[in-house]
């Protein structure tokens, strides 16, 4: 995974993206017990408002055309791991990317969303597997309750949180 | 009829399991990735054995 993270850092250093952070299941795996996943979700902020509807094209140009990694469906396989890039798409993901933190990965560092933002996104997306990961995060991660409450308050997720707590008996 | 409490041996077993999962959560990410790849291999073997589309297994270099 270190090799994959080094390429993500190169992507940012080369200015192809302004900022990246690992999100999704793999992001959660930095905080909870390992859970199965098939790809690495990466949130990105692009340098400028793209003129083309294919907003991720510069990333593919860098990774596929220049670095020789294979594009497969919606992913690019970077050093053995399928990576799916997603441009920030709402105030929650924008804030999550802005406040993301770094973790050591071998001899380099990866930027990862804070657990409180990952939890809020799990709540927002709301699939059964998101709820399972949210329950694991509540039980296993070192999360800041005040920060989480502030995040869900800012992004209109309090009702979903209340419903989740009722359903899963998290007091 | 009131709710019956789980037998002590079951509660102990669940508590031990929970402690083990918390310990897994504290592993370095490199070790977690190794576990995830093992899970991917197991999922692939099961899928192949049961005629379902096999999921990808990450092909990691040396790390």
Account of the 3D structure:
- The complex is a heterodimer of chains A (171) and B (63).
- Chain A is α+β, with helices and mostly antiparallel strands.
- Helices cover 47% and strands 20% of the residues of chain A.
- Chain A has a five-stranded mixed beta sheet.
- The longest helix of chain A has 13 residues, at 128-140.
- Chain B has helices at residues 8-25, 29-49.
- Chain B is mainly α and 63 residues long.
- In chain B, 62% of the residues lie in helices and 0% in strands.
- The chains are: A alpha+beta (171), B mainly alpha (63).
- The interface between A and B is medium-sized, with 25 and 22 residues.
What would a concise description of this structure say?
The complex is a heterodimer of chains A (171) and B (63). Chain A has 171 residues and is an alpha+beta fold. Helix content of chain A is 47%, strand content 20%.
Named at the architecture level, the CATH assignment of the largest domain in chain A is 2-Layer Sandwich
Cα(first) to Cα(last) distance of chain B is 56 Å
Give the CA-based shape of chain B: flat
The SS-based structural class of chain A is: alpha+beta
The helix/strand class of chain B is mainly alpha
**Sheet bearing the most strands of chain B, described?**
none
> What's the mean pLDDT score of chain B?
91
What do the pLDDT scores of chain A average to? 94
Descriptive keywords:
heterodimer, A: 171 residues, 2 domains, two-stranded antiparallel sheet, 7 strands, B: 63 residues, mainly alpha
What's the helix and strand layout?
The complex is a heterodimer of chains A (171) and B (63).
Chain A: H1 2-13, E1 19-23, H2 24-29, E2 40-45, H3 57-66, E3 70-72, E4 75-78, E5 81-87, H4 91-98, E6 101-105, E7 108-112, H5 115-125, H6 128-140, H7 145-154, H8 158-168
Helix pairs in contact in A: 4-5, 5-6, 5-7
Chain B: H1 8-25, H2 29-49
